[in-house]
Amino acid sequence: MQILEGAGRFIDQHHIEITSPGGSVTTISADATLIATGARPRELESATPDGERILTWEQLYNLPTPPARLIVVGSGVTGAEFASAYRALGSEVVLVSSRDRVLPGEDPDAAAVIENVFARRGIQVLANSRAISAERSADGADGAAGVVVTLKDGTKIQGSHVLMAVGSIPNTDALNLKAAGVDVDPAGFITVDRVSRTTARNIYAAGDCTGVLMLASVAAMQGRIAMWHALGDAVQPLDRNVVSSTVFTDPEIATVGMTQSDIDSDEIRADVYTMPLATNARAKMQDTQEGFVKIFCRKGTRLIAGAVVVGPHASELIHVLALAIQQRLTADEVAATFTVYPSLSGSIGEAARRLHIIED
């Protein structure tokens, strides 16, 4: 195996030019290529990150101590996760959301749990508020520097640091993809099919640069599928409906398959049951007061179609439901599977049993 350090760009579909840190240029040929260049934080001209007070989610990790008062701009997954984490570390946190709720892309019941937890823990959420700029402020009377975030309505919020969690940009602009015949969408994400192949037959792409469910687990699976396909092995194309994901707030939110919005929009006909964790004996022992297991099963076939788990270790519990969807198990089959008592997973079996009652 040969490892070349440097910046690569395509010359054509089969040749790549690599410029080393020292400036030397090497051209290599390739029968198959996998692009895995990732993505970087989106930056606003009116809130240019400086790595000290105005920060991206990459720069935030470099702070030697937790911020005294952290303003988080953006209420998506990244913003919510950092808000939850830094409040737990002792920071005062203000979350600026341009939408009417936190985590607008997640299950509404799950998002409501997180909002309630945030409120109880003292995280201030400013809903329907759009930040238009972030600037460093002059030293205060105590000599401490800070930041000022200005909202669209003119309101100014002061803090010690601000995290700009306003999306990601794919690292594709310097690859000269057009020369290789690789198409990108209007946002710059590489277009791939379900076996990770681009519009150039011998070039594949995986991970955040594709914009396909920007998760580490999906990136890894895309890469494996791509290489298996390139080597002529049998592959199972990526099926988004069996991909589980987790929002690592406290409590966690884990989801898989169809969503509440799919049902509300009549995209699928399904029955839904939500089992609060407050009814679970193990949860009571652990003093867990928030969270639930929600299962969707299709009408008629009773196949498990989707699920949401909110609570401790939701990222572990969702695997059972992901298997149920992938293996096409019915609610009754899940209900008939033994679970440990007491255990949080017992709520999965109980929710499935309640779905049998609904069908009757």
What does this 3D model show about the protein?
The chain is of the alpha/beta class and 360 residues long. It has three domains: 7-30 and 172-238, FAD/NAD(P)-binding domain, CATH 3.50.50.60; 54-168, 3-Layer(bba) Sandwich (FAD/NAD(P)-binding domain); 241-359, FAD/NAD-linked reductase, C-terminal dimerisation domain (Enolase-like, domain 1), CATH 3.30.390. Helix content is 24%, strand content 27%. The protein is built from nine helices and 20 strands. It has helices spanning 77-88, 108-120, 177-180, 216-230, 260-264, 281-285, 314-326, 331-335, 346-359, and strands at 7-12, 15-19, 25-29, 33-35, 39-41, 54-55, 69-73, 92-96, 124-126, 131-137, 146-151, 156-159, 161-164, 168-170, 203-205, 244-247, 252-257, 270-276, 292-298, 304-311. The strands form six sheets. It has a five-stranded parallel β-sheet with strand order 6-13-7-8-9. A hairpin with a 4-residue loop joins strand 16 and strand 17 (252-257). The longest helix is centred in the middle third of the chain and has 15 residues, at 216-230. The chain is flat, with a radius of gyration of 23 Å. The model has no long low-confidence stretch (mean pLDDT 95).
Q: Briefly, what is this?
A:
By secondary structure, the protein is of the alpha/beta class.
What string, H for helix and E for strand, traces the elements in order?
Answer: EEEEEEEHEHEEEEEEHEHEEHEHEEHHH
Rg over CA atoms:
23 Å
Classified by CATH, the class of the largest domain is: Alpha Beta
For the record, what is the CATH homologous superfamily label of the largest domain? FAD/NAD-linked reductase, C-terminal dimerisation domain
Spatial arrangement of strands, main beta sheet: 6-13-7-8-9
Main sheet record: 5 strands, parallel
Number of strands: 20
Helical content (DSSP H or I, runs of 4+): 10-25%
Please identify the structural class as seen in this structure: alpha/beta
Shape: flat
